[in-house]
Structure formats: C-alpha cells, structure tokens
Amino acid sequence: MTVQNTLNGAETAALGLPIGTTLDRFIKRQQSQYPSAVGDFSQLLRDIALASKIVNREINRAGLSGLLGTAGSTNIQGEMQQKLDLSAHIRFLRALNNGGEVAAIVSEEEPEIIHTDHPDGKYVVALDPLDGSSNFDTNVSVGTIFSVYRRITPIGTLPTEADFLQGGRRQVAAGYVLYGPSTMLVFTTGNGVNGFTYDPSLGEFMLSHPQLQCPSDGTVYSCNDGYLAQYDEAVQQYIDQCRERGYSARYIGAFVADFHRNLLKGGIYLYPGTLTQPAGKIRLLYEAFPMAWLAEQANGRAETGAGPVLNVRPDALHGRTPIFAGSAQLVADVVQLFTDSFALSTEQV
After folding, report:
1. Which of 314, 305, 173, 188 is nearest to 235 (CA)?
2. Is 133 labelled a binding residue?
3. 179 is in an annotated binding site
4. CA dist 149 to 23, 44, 289, Å?
5. Would the annotation count 269 as a binding residue?
6. Is position 270 annotated in a ligand binding site?
7. CATH number, domain at 32?
8. 40, 197, 235, 317: which could form a disulfide with 101 (CB 3.0–4.6 Å)?
9. Residue 143, marked binder
C-alpha cells in the first residue's frame, strides 16, 4: 500500500497546500522593494521576533518554572513588578543588544535610557516588555508592545531623550505580540498592518492576517467601569450611550488583548483620564504611540479627546495620555461628545 492510498481526499488536498509565508520571507520581500536597504532594519524585526519566541516559551512554562507571582519590586510607574515582567524585559534587551542595530532602549521596567553596546546603531526602541502582566497568574492573555525610531543624534554617540521624544508620526515600525491561545505578532512599518501567527511545530511566525483592516463600526466597548465616576462627563455620556444601544462590554485589562479583539472584530478601547490621574494610565511612548499608529494604518482611529494621539508632543520618557482607539466611527462618537462638551463650557463662560 502506498502512502497516497493511506490518506483520504481531504488529507491529500491539505498536503498540496502551500506552507505559507514566514516572517523571515515576508521581511526579505519587503526589503527587496528598497534597493538601498542594507538589512539593519530587517534584522531588528527578526530580533524582536526571536525575543517574543523566548518569552512565549517562558510564559507557557511559567507555572512549572517558578515565574509566577511578584518579584518584590516596583517599576518607574510605581507598579508592582511581576517575575515575568523582569524576565521579558531581560529577553528583549538581550535580543536587541545582540542584534547590533539598536543603540538604546526605553523600557517600562527601567526609569532611564538603556544604552546598548552599539552606539553606532541606527535605531532606538521603546518597549513595554509584558503588558497586562498583573493578570498573568490567572492565565489571562498578555502581550508585548514596541515602537521603533530612526535615531536623530549622530551615529557613534550615545542616544539621548531627543531620539525617543520625536513624536508618534516619526515611528518607523510599531507593533505588539499577543500571547494568548495562539501567539501573534502584529506590526506595521507604514504600509498597512500584517499579523503573523506562531507555529510552534516549525518555530516560525507565519503570515496569517495580511493587510488587517479594522471594521469601521462595532458594538463592543472596552473600559474599566470601576472608574466610571471619575471619568470626564463626555466619557460617562458615551458609556451611557453604549449601554442604551445594547453594546457589549468586554474588558480584559491587558491593552494588547483588548485592542487586538477590537482591531479584528470592531470596537473601541477607552482609557480616559480620571480625577486622580488626569493624564490617564497608558504610557505615551511605548503603548499609546505604537497602538495609535497601528489603528490608523488599519483604517481605525486613535484620539485623546483633544486630538489624534499621534499628534501629541511627548515631553517625558514615561509620560501618559488618555486614549480612545479602535473603529473609526466609534472613536468619532467619543470625539463629538468632547467637542460638544467643550462648546457648552465655552458658552457658559
């Protein structure tokens, strides 16, 4: 009996299907469109992918390897660090340092700029190594968020804050890794958004979601209702409208997970300012900027309530911003309420 005879029709057809496009092949094809490219930027993306594979492995084994729970320290934001926060931080730093293309890194887990061993590197990276890590002990999806800039200080010198504070519209790459039921790498370099799913049997990220487009409308809103009384009146009105329209509330508490669901299915993620935190909680450089660029590149929208997130001028490495991101129509509804609220307050004055 031949091998062919032991397979049914569906199995035989499956063997005839192409394996697909690996991340490495995709990067090479993109690089070939730029004859002057020397491969530094491509290698940087590969370094990020490598680090995410290692973090994915550690997340999958965390309950067996003692990586659950807190590390007994706090980060620059005053948040309790999880063991996996520090592990992911180390993995990404090592991968980016070993690659040689990155001159400096800003991470949520360190207060100052981290200089690599390569002052001749052309790029700097802002990074949230493990977003949503406080949820991890309960086996909830978490993620990594990254933002890449071409440095503006002279090559060979130590990068400064100016390299990181260029503004969101100067990003050359941005994306996230979602560690969930499957692990996905989603990123943009300014030519749309592409998603890659990790195949552990091959050890490769495979192109699974080419040219992602966020639905222009949706029926899901994602926010922390526990802070409702502290939100601006315009936000309270918007949430009331969502409830009146029968929208579904879906809030995981990990920015990557909430954003990813709404990117694929349609919806809006809201993290406004509050009475106690007027600037909100989301960090501008390594959370809001990359996600806002992804939203815009995928036909969505990202606003602060006073204008596009990408138009904000950053003034600190760990600065924060309110953010409303997702389907364009839903974000427009929020913006309209802020506009109406401002007009009303102006009239009263």
Report:
1. 305
2. yes
3. no
4. 21, 11, 11
5. yes
6. yes
7. 3.30.540.10
8. 40
9. no
